[in-house]
Amino acid sequence: MKVVIIEDEQPAYKRLVKLLGDVMPDAEIAAHHDSVSTAKQWFEENEPPAIVFMDIHLADGSAFDLLKAIKIDAPIIFTTAYD
Questions:
Q1: pLDDT at 66 exceeding the cut of 70
Q2: Which residues make beta-bridge pairs with 53?
Q3: Can you give the pLDDT at residue 83?
């Protein structure tokens, strides 16, 4: 199962990767992005993954900026501490 993680905090990214490995050992991290701009480019150039884990507040904007700019054809799970 191909997974994309959009998270700008390295400790949060590492923790999510560990948790995914524990519960989804067959998960393949297809991409990791820390910004709206890099994620947007990746989704425009690649096939959609099976699932996306996405932080709300990113290095250059919000997850909602990304969702306004492109359509993501995969389930999205928001993984954030953002209020």
A1: yes
A2: 5, 77
A3: 64
8 Å CB contact between 73 and 46: no
**Predicted structure pTM score:** 0.93
Size (the chain), residues: 83
**Measuring CA to CA, how many Å separate 73 from each of 24, 31, 46, 67, 81?**
21, 15, 11, 11, 24
What 8-state DSSP symbol labels residue 35?
A: S
Nearest CA-CA partner of 6 in 51, 71, 73, 68: 51
Check if the beta carbon of residue 2 is closer than 8 Å to that of residue 50.
yes
Inform me whether the pLDDT recorded for 81 exceeds 80.
Answer: no
